[in-house]
User: Which sequence fits this backbone?
């Protein structure tokens, strides 16, 4: 048996570390989900969650992982055979498109190199070419968790508007919500898909759909078979604070607390904190002589950094070594970049010293793996943190 001392470093890009405050909030007796105490909790969290999506419109909470909320977005608004424009920006975008295909949607998947986000000019071009408005929805992943690349959602919105196209706009905010600026109403997103286990600092188990009036109107028209994911049943029951089926009661206590924490810090400060830690991490990576996977500085992520291992070095062997030696979990390379990249999560409940510890573990691991010149990354990050003081 291996004896481990100190705390495990969970530095994958989600699930993230859960603050003690949130754990304590969850640690409550289970209550009657059809009783008055639950109704008050339900109403409170459903209202509070709107501020995180920056919307005045309804937000639905599913007791499900993010994949469930992906499915809900599609099945409520689209029907088999409908054309959907999607972009292969990374593993999660690819998985969302596979899910859509299983629902017999007709997917036009724009290929990508996994180093860039959705290109707004391509969106405009494709939509202009669709003179008969056959494309019913455009889907994009805001923060591609497999690559650390952020799609500029406002620019994509502007591209849809410039083409004068009526397609619904659906955005996966699973690893951006509560870490990177996101504005459901202002950017006229029709369905925003979110999850509990990343910027919201909760355990996995909740996922969300923020819904525009246009998406709600479209949901009345669909002919897809749907039951569990139905928005109409959910919205009707949510009016009184209840759910049509058993909600994840204790996670909702946690959600209430995590939203309170995000507002105590101030959402803009939360985003700035993540951006600052992202920049410090990238400086460390460059000092080690390694390359960040994200190619365009306008698309760098504050939530995570995917790092390319040099040729001849297996990223998973490196991650295994870091786990065994330093008890730190780093994110694995997914799909096309498996074995080639490792990912450093710097989102959620995270501060300067968590970053310093994380980067120290990476730097020590790189040296042990034979990259003897991988030095000075921690120093470069600390220099930046000192010069880019908060507030
Ligand atoms: C951007 C993104 N979309 C979707 C998912 C899928 O969510 P889940 O694993 O909670 O079903 C993830 C999971 O990490 C993700 O990062």
Assistant:
């Amino acid at each position: 048996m291996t004896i481990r001392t100190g705390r495990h470093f969970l530095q994958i890009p989600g699930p993230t570390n859960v603050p003690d405050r949130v754990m304590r909030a969850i640690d409550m007796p289970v209550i009657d989900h059809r009783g008055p105490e639950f109704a008050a909790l339900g109403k409170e969290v459903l209202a509070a969650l709107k501020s995180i999506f920056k919307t005045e419109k309804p937000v639905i909470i599913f007791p499900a992982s993010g994949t469930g909320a992906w499915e809900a977005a599609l099945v409520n608004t689209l029907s088999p055979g409908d054309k959907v424009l999607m972009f292969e920006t990374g593993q999660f975008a690819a998985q969302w498109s596979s899910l859509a295909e299983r629902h017999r949607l007709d997917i036009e998947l724009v290929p990508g190199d996994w180093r860039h986000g959705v290109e707004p000019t391509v969106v405009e071009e494709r939509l202009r070419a669709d003179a008969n408005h056959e494309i019913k929805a455009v889907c994009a992943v805001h923060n591609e968790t497999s690559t650390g690349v952020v799609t500029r959602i406002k620019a994509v919105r502007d591209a849809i508007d410039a083409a004068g196209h009526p397609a619904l706009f659906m955005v996966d905010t699973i690893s951006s919500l509560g870490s990177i600026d996101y504005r459901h109403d202002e950017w006229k997103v029709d369905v925003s898909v979110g999850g509990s286990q990343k910027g919201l600092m909760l355990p996995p188990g909740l996922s969300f759909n923020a819904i525009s009036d246009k998406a709600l109107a479209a949901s009345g028209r669909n002919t897809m078979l749907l039951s569990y994911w139905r928005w109409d049943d959910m919205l009707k029951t949510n009016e009184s604070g209840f759910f049509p089926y058993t909600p994840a009661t204790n996670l909702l206590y946690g959600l209430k607390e995590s939203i309170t924490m995000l507002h105590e810090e101030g959402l803009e400060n939360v985003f700035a904190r993540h951006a600052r830690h992202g920049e410090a991490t990238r400086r460390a990576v460059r000092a080690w002589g390694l390359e960040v996977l994200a190619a365009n500085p306008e698309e760098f992520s504050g939530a995570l950094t995917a790092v390319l291992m040099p040729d001849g070095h297996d990223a998973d062997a490196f991650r295994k070594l870091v786990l065994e030696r330093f008890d730190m979990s780093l994110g694995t390379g997914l799909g096309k970049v498996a074995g080639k990249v490792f990912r450093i999560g710097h989102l959620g409940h995270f501060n300067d010293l968590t970053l310093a510890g994380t980067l120290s573990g990476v730097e020590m691991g790189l040296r042990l793996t034979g990259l003897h010149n991988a030095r000075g990354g921690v120093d470069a990050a600390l220099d930046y943190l000192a010069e880019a003081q908060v507030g």
In short: The first helix runs from residue 20 to 26. The radius of gyration is 21 Å. The chain has 13 helices and 14 strands. The chain has a mean pLDDT of 97.
